[in-house]
C-alpha cells in the first residue's frame, strides 16, 4: 500500500515548521519502546519493520499534498517549497522482525535532523503497532496449539483493509500455517485455505445434496462444514456421500456447539468408517484461552480456524508504544514526569541466557546485541529478510523463551536489567533536572 | 484505497466455483445484521456504505489476480476465464450512513445470482465493521461531551492505514469536530488540528524557550503543551511568554496528571492574567467513561483530544456482524442452530416514535422505512450523501434517541418488534425445518 507523508498527526508538521523557523537542525535520536507490557502479555513480538522501511523510502510530498497544506493557511510559502524537496536523510536502527522483546527495550531508533526524525513519529508508530500487536497475539495462540494447525480466519472483522493484510502476514510470522485471506496469499506467498459456509449448505434442498455438490467441485480437496443442522448427523452424511462418490474426504469443519464432545463423536464416526485420515477442523469464537481448554479436554482436533478475537487482539487491542527523544545534539535527554520514567541516550539491548540487558549503544557487553542498522542516508543498508526467514527466526527465538513466560494466564516479568553505565547516566541526568526544577521554581517565586 | 477481489476469504471463491460447477445461478438475498449488541453497547451507528459501493463498482479480477488463482491448482481454466469477465450485476439495499440501529435489524442487503452475492461477503463485512465500530464508539463519546470540542488523536494506535483513515472519518460522522490526521483532512475535507509534543519542549534548553519558539512560529494559532515538567509552572510560563511577546494564546494542552484539579488551577492562572479566551485542551488515556468523570467533577475543559481507547474501540473492539442467506430462488430461508436464531426473508425496518419494527420487505407499516435501494444492475442508483450531510443526519437521529439508551454505564435494550407477517413466516419455516429434521433422523436410522 502506498503511503502519503500526510498520513501523520498535524503536530508533526507544525513542529517541523517551528524547528526550521527557529533554525533548529541538530541531529536527534528517537527510540520506540514500551514502558510497561499490557496486562495480559508477558512478552511482545516485534514486527512491521518492512512497512517502516518502505514508507521512509517513499516519503515524498506530492504537489497535491503541498496544495492541501497551503489551503490550511498555517504555513508560509518557503516552508511549503521546502516540503516539495523533502527527503529523509537519517539512519534507522532496529530489531529484526520476529524478535521477542520486553519492557523498556528500544525496538527501533531513528537518528536524523530533529525535524526529519519528528516527522516519522506517527506513521512509524502506526505501522509497528498493528504488526507487533498481531504477531504477539499470534504467538500466544501458537504457544498453546501443541502442534495443531492454525489458520487465520479473521478477515471479516479486522479493522479495515490494511489490518486484514497485516493480520494475515503476522499470523504466519508467529507460527500460524495459513490464512483464508486470498490477497495475503498472493502478496506474501503464504498458504491459503478455505472450506465452505453455512449459506452454501442452506442453498441446497438438503445437506446431502450440498455435500455432493461440493465434493463434485473439489473431489480431492473438500473440507465439509457439518454443523449447519446437526453435527453428528452431518458427520454421518459426510461419510455416506464420500463413500457413494468414492472420494477421499480431506476434512470436516465444526463451527458451533460443544466442540469437545462433538469432535470426539465425529472422530469415532470417521474412524469407524475407515476415514482415519480425514481431519477435524474447529472454528468459531476461538482464541488462546479457548484453544487451550479444548486441547486440555482431549478434543481430537487437527486444526483451528481462528478469527475475530485473534484479528482484533480482543483481550488487549492496543500496545502503549512510545516514540521518545533520547538524544539531542549529541546530548542524552529524558523526561521526569511521574509514571513516565524512561532511560536517556542511544541504547542497545543485549540478550543472554534467561535475561536481557539494556545498555548505552556503544557498550560492549556479553550476549547478542539486538539492534542493527537498517537505514543509512535515508536508504536501506541491506535487503530485509523474507517473511519465511522471519518466521524461522521467530520460531527459534520463541523456542528459547522460558516456559513460565509463555504462560497465557499468569503475569510473569522477564528480567530486563539496565547496565551500570546507563544507570549512572540516568542518575546524573535526574540530579540535573531536579536542580533545574528547583531553580525554575525559585525564579518563578521571585 | 483501491481494493482487489482477492481481498476475500478463499471459501468465497471455492463456493463461487462450486455453485457454477453445479449450475446454481438462482438469485439469492443476503442480509447483514447483528443478532445481539456487544455487552457495552445499547445502540450501534451504521457506517461504511461509501466504501462498499466503491468496492462493488471496482470489483474486477486483474490478470495478476487470475494468474495467482491459477497457481493454487484449485480451479479449472473455464472458471478462471469466467473470473476475467466477472462483474457484480445485482442490487444492494442499505440504511443511510449515520443511522442508529439495533439487534436483528438488517442494515444492508445484497440481492444477486447466489455466486455474486456470496463473493461480496468478506469485503462488505470488513468495511462496514470497522466504520460502524468506530462511529458507534464516537457516538458514545459525543453523548457525554456536553458540548465540549472533540478531536480524534488516535492515528498512532489505529490498526493500520485504512483504520486510521476510517477512524478519522467516522469520528466526524458521529459528532467529533476535528482530527489530527492530516491525510483525513485532505481526503474527507474535515477540520484538522495539532499542537506540539513533549519532545519539542525537551529539545530546547528550557520550557520558556520552547514556548517562545512555538509562539514565534504560530503567533495567532499556538496551543502550548504545558505538562512536560510541572503543569502549574508551565501555565505560568505560557502566560509570561505570551505577554512578553504580545500574542494572544489560543490554548494550552494538559496530557498527564490529575486533570480535574490541574485544569481548575490552570483556569485560575489564565483568568487571573486576563487570558479568559485561552482554551484548555485535555488529552491522554481518554474515553467516554473518563470524559464523563472529568466533566462530572466540574473540570473547566474546553476540548478533549481522544486517542487510543477510541481509535481501537478498546472496551469492545469488534461487533459480531453476520451476513446471512435469507432468500434463495424466491423462497425465504433460515438456519435453526441453537443461539443462531434469525428471521427469514427479505426484510425492512420501520422506525416509529420510541420503537422499531422489523417486517417483510413488501409490508407497508406505520413509520419510516430505513432500507433503501443504493445499487441496481451493479451500478449506484444515486449519489451518496457527503460526509457533512451524513454527520447532520447522525446528529438528528441521535437527538431523537431516548436518553436511557444513551446511558454509557447501564445496559438498556431498545424495543425492536417483529411484524405479525414475519412472525408467521418464521413459525411456518420452523415447523418445516423440524419436520425435515425428524424425517432426516428417521432416514438415517433405516
From TrEMBL, chains A, B:
GO molecular function: nicotinamide phosphoribosyltransferase activity; nicotinate phosphoribosyltransferase activity
Nicotinate/nicotinamide phosphoribosyltransferase domain segment(s): 150-341
Keywords from the UniProt entry: Coiled coil, Glycosyltransferase, Ligase, Phosphoprotein, Pyridine nucleotide biosynthesis, Transferase
Keyword Transport: no
SUPFAM superfamilies: Nicotinate/Quinolinate PRTase C-terminal domain-like, Nicotinate/Quinolinate PRTase N-terminal domain-like
Enzyme class, broadest EC rank: ligase
Coiled-coil residue windows: 419-446
GO CC annotations on file: cytosol
PTM: Transiently phosphorylated on a His residue during the reaction cycle. Phosphorylation strongly increases the affinity for substrates and increases the rate of nicotinate D-ribonucleotide production. Dephosphorylation regenerates the low-affinity form of the enzyme, leading to product release.
Pfam hit, one: NAPRTase
Catalytic activity: 5-phospho-alpha-D-ribose 1-diphosphate + nicotinate + ATP + H2O = nicotinate beta-D-ribonucleotide + ADP + phosphate + diphosphate
Annotated ranges, domain Nicotinate phosphoribosyltransferase C-terminal: 365-425
Family: Belongs to the NAPRTase family.
Role according to the record: Catalyzes the first step in the biosynthesis of NAD from nicotinic acid, the ATP-dependent synthesis of beta-nicotinate D-ribonucleotide from nicotinate and 5-phospho-D-ribose 1-phosphate.
Protein name: Nicotinate phosphoribosyltransferase
Amino acid at each position: 500500500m502506498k503511503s502519503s507523508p500526510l498520513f501523520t498527526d498535524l503536530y508533526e508538521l507544525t513542529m517541523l515548521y517551528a524547528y526550521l523557523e527557529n533554525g533548529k537542525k541538530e541531529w536527534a535520536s528517537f527510540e520506540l519502546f514500551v514502558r510497561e507490557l499490557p496486562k495480559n502479555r508477558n512478552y511482545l513480538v516485534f514486527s512491521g519493520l518492512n512497512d517502516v522501511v518502505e514508507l521512509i523510502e517513499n516519503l515524498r510530498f506530492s504537489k497535491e499534498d503541498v496544495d492541501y497544506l497551503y489551503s490550511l493557511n498555517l504555513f508560509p510559502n518557503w516552508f511549503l517549497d521546502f516540503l516539495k524537496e523533502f527527503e529523509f536523510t537519517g539512519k534507522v536502527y532496529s530489531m529484526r522482525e520476529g524478535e521477542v522483546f520486553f519492557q523498556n527495550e528500544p525496538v527501533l531508533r531513528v537518528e536524523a535532523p530533529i525535524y526529519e526524525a519528528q516527522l516519522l513519529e506517527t506513521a512509524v508508530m502506526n505501522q509497528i503497532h498493528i504488526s507487533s500487536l498481531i504477531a504477539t497475539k499470534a504467538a500466544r495462540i501458537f504457544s498453546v496449539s501443541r502442534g495443531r494447525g492454525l489458520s487465520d480466519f479473521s478477515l471479516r472483522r479486522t479493522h479495515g483493509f490494511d489490518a486484514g493484510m497485516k493480520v494475515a502476514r503476522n499470523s504466519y510470522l508467529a507460527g500460524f500455517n495459513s490464512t483464508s485471506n486470498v490477497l495475503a496469499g498472493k502478496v506474501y506467498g503464504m498458504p491459503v485455505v478455505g472450506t465452505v459456509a453455512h449459506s452454501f449448505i442452506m442453498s441446497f434442498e438438503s445437506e446431502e445434496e450440498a455435500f455432493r455438490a461440493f465434493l463434485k467441485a473439489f473431489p480431492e480437496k473438500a473440507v465439509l462444514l457439518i454443523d449447519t443442522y446437526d453435527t453428528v448427523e452431518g458427520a454421518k452424511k459426510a461419510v455416506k456421500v464420500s463413500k457413494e462418490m468414492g472420494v477421499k474426504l480431506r476434512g470436516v469443519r465444526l463451527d458451533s456447539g460443544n466442540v469437545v464432545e462433538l469432535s470426539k463423536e465425529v472422530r469415532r464416526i470417521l474412524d469407524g468408517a475407515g476415514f482415519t485420515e480425514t481431519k477435524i477442523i474447529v472454528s468459531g469464537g476461538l482464541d488462546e484461552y479457548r484453544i487451550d481448554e479444548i486441547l486440555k479436554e482431549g478434543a481430537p482436533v487437527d486444526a483451528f480456524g481462528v478469527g475475530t478475537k485473534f484479528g482484533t487482539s480482543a483481550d488487549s487491542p492496543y500496545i502503549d508504544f512510545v516514540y521518545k527523544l533520547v538524544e539531542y545534539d549529541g546530548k542524552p535527554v529524558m523526561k521526569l514526569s511521574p509514571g513516565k520514567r524512561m532511560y536517556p541516550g542511544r541504547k542497545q539491548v543485549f540478550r543472554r541466557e534467561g535475561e536481557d540487558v539494556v545498555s548505552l549503544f556503544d557498550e560492549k557487553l556479553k550476549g547478542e546485541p539486538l539492534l542493527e542498522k537498517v537505514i543509512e542516508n535515508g536508504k536501506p543498508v541491506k535487503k530485509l529478510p523474507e517473511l519465511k526467514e522471519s518466521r524461522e527466526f521467530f520460531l527459534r527465538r520463541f523456542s528459547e523463551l522460558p516456559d513460565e513466560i509463555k504462560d497465557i494466564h499468569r503475569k510473569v516479568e522477564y528480567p530486563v536489567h539496565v547496565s551500570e553505565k546507563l544507570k549512572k547516566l540516568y542518575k546524573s541526568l535526574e540530579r540535573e533536572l531536579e536542580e533545574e526544577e528547583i531553580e525554575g521554581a525559585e525564579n518563578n517565586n521571585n
